[in-house]
């Protein structure tokens, strides 16, 4: 078997790429798995802890990458030479299925410390609505209870946020494993994006030409 390109992804984004010899992976699957895990952990250090790494079989189902399953994963990419792997992240420090709203609130506030909380909640409301839209093909009737409070949150209205978090946790607990994995990945990716967005310095428009400047009142052309 020739060289295999291994692309490891989180929430649809490639976080690591490496090339390994297919025959060596088959001969020493434990070592191959260890290399893949260590590189993924290094790429995500300080961001996400890894629950497991999966690949998709011919029917699109998630299969956990283990030493015994490496040969199967390589068979699936024999033609393309590209092994696409997906990181299944652990939930926020404690599994969401065992959290209470107060604990989840504390964990969330730690992650957004120093940011504009009003904008954080608005963006979380928007993200929640976007997630419901993505999950439309698997829609459950009780999810409709989330729409009104998420709309209010996205609009900047004051609502009992712990009540909303508790409701979200209840919905999460009813989901099957694959849907929980999707929600976990979406939540972690979204929170990281929100923190990055709201941590960026504000853009100020030049008084002369209207171009965006980060400091002062005039751009380099009008100064």
Characterization of the model:
- The protein is α+β, with helices and mostly antiparallel strands.
- It is built from 8 helices and 7 strands; from the N terminus they run E-E-H-H-E-E-H-E-H-H-H-H-H-E-E.
- It has helices at residues 22-27, 29-43, 70-76, 101-111, 117-134, 147-154, 161-174, 177-199, and strands at residues 3-10, 13-21, 50-56, 62-64, 82-89, 204-205, 212-213.
- It has a 5-stranded mixed beta sheet, with helices on both faces.
- A hairpin with a 6-residue loop joins strand 6 (204-205) and strand 7 (212-213).
- The protein is elongated.
Low-confidence stretches: 92-97
Which radius of gyration do the C-alpha atoms yield? 22 Å
H/E element order: EEHHEEHEHHHHHEE
> How many strand segments?
7
How helical, in percent, are the residues?
A: 40-55%
Counted by DSSP, the helix tally is 8
Structural class comes to alpha+beta
User: How would a textbook summarize the main sheet?
Assistant: 5 strands, mixed
Overall geometric form: elongated
Strand order of the largest sheet: 2-1-5-3-4
End-to-end span in angstroms? 62 Å
Whole-number mean pLDDT: 82
What is the percentage of strand-forming residues? 15-25%
